[in-house]
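Troubleshooting: if your tokenizer reports a length mismatch, compare your output against this known-good record of 151 residues.
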Amino acid sequence: MLYGLSFWLEDFYSGFNVFQYLTFRGILGALTALVISFVIGPFFIRHLTVKQIGQSIRDDGPQSHLQKAGTPTMGGALILASIVFSMALWADLTNRFIWVLFFVILVFGGVCARGGNISGSRWAGSGRLFSYITRPSRMWKPRYWCHFLKT
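Known-good structure output:
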């Protein structure tokens, strides 16, 4: 969004030309994601604690692990949200590789979230989790996606 806005603002002040540089936008994107995670993190963790979305500890494990019971386990969602929001702000949204990156981040984040939901169920420890996730095997083959990336 801000990348496209910089083209318009460049007509008024030439200093906005700095937004055309990939390294500048990359550094600002990383800093934006960091600030978002620091600002939203405490609220997100508090919300997960209130909703009781936490880690369950097995009884047969070490006694020192029992103090971790109830620790929120969805920190990856906070990281993914800050990365996706930062990418939406600073990336060139006309580039199709950015959209592939959005898709990959969201799909693998969904796979990890699904795996986290499955880990407490009958699939846990059976070795069938990976085969469950990759069942639509044709979608995961690189040649399936190569036609999308061709220019």
